[in-house]
Amino acid sequence: MGAGRWGNPLLLLAALVLVLGRHQQWPGFQDSESPKNVNATLAFFLENYNNNSNDSYLFGVDRLLRSQVQLTTGVEYLITVKLSRTKCKRNSTKKRSCPIQTKKNLKKSFICDFLVYTLPWMNHYQLWNNSCLDV
What we know:
The chain has 135 residues and is an alpha+beta fold. It has a single domain (28-89, 100-134), classed as Nuclear Transport Factor 2, Chain: A (Roll). It is built from two helices and five strands; from the N terminus they run H-E-H-E-E-E-E. It has helices at residues 9-21, 35-52; strands at residues 30-31, 57-71, 75-89, 109-119, 124-134. Strands 1-2-3-4-5 form a five-stranded antiparallel β-sheet, with helices on one face. 16% of the residues are buried. The mean pLDDT is 84. Belongs to the cystatin family. Residues 1-21 form the signal peptide. It holds the Pfam family Cystatin. InterPro entries: CSTL1, Cystatin_dom, Cystatin_sf.
């Protein structure tokens, strides 16, 4: 049973939802005005992503595409980011900045949407939802 000329329809639908979702404002969310809290949330997500990745290289934030916030019992961040493979190997023990990979055969990037619930005053973060697509 082939998928026909449109390929996998579920994959096509998922890509469409992800692309259209970037241009809509989610109800209750506003553009974030706090770089400090966004950076801490990005660091949490990146650590979570790298810990769950099977790639032999670490990934880093290449570009912040969107950051929205909603106040509830805590703070919810809805963030869209471009992640790219870095030059740092996963097992590297040195704490240093990891530049984005420049070798053509090693380049790899994703666009990720994620929702994090946080109580920043308690340094508590929970990843509620995330999805990433190859770029």
